[in-house]
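User: Quick sanity check before I run a bigger batch. Here is a single chain. Can you write out its predicted 3D structure?
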Amino acid sequence: MKIVACIKRVPLTETQAKVAADGKSLDSAGVEYMTSFYDELAVEQAVKSKEQLGGEVTILTIGPGSASKELRESLAKGADKGEILVDDNWSMRDNRATAKALANRLREMGADLVFCGRVATDRDNASVGPMLATYLGAACVTDVVELELSEGKGIAKREADSGVESYEFSFPAVITCQKDLNEPRYAGLKGIMAAKKKPIEELPLEAEDNQIEPLSLDLPPARAEGRIIGEGADAVPALMDALLNEAKVL
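Assistant: Done. Predicted structure follows.
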């Protein structure tokens, strides 16, 4: 059983974004990175699937060699090995190019079950997982909140506007992970020490051309500072006037 969790390194959520000199990308100077939150759910589900069905878990990412930091964190939680498709231009790849590059490698690996986060917390597009399944010709269930697996097949529940939908699927399959699917485990000291000895392989990226190109990037305008209207019941008329005539939300 070959299980793969695809992860993406993203800037820390408290990063103060700055536009780079080219005017269409983020300035990476001084930026620290983390594994995208939903991808942590994917790692946890991959490890839980191995614990249930056996097999091997590989963590796969596209990025620079320094992405080994995020891979080591996943290996410390129970994954067996990691692979980096090395690409110094990883942050500028569009979703199609990313999905095709991942699919090329996953096809070579013969992956049976692939887990992705439902969305990356930097761009919020939620499209790489379904695209990946399309290129692989695999089953796909998105936004999964509950999963039951057996030999060669599974049942997934996903949240939809109309309620919770249940789907039965066979392997190979791509599952994108939503909140409530699991609670990612913390890496203990034993896992952290073991992760140092687990292999991480750097492979050349089979680059695909982007179909979209950013033209410009602008940060949102700074929010106006708040102010205290007053205290107690006497401040209510002034507050209502500010909401009606200044903020215009009433």
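The mean pLDDT is 91.

User: Great, the batch can go ahead then.
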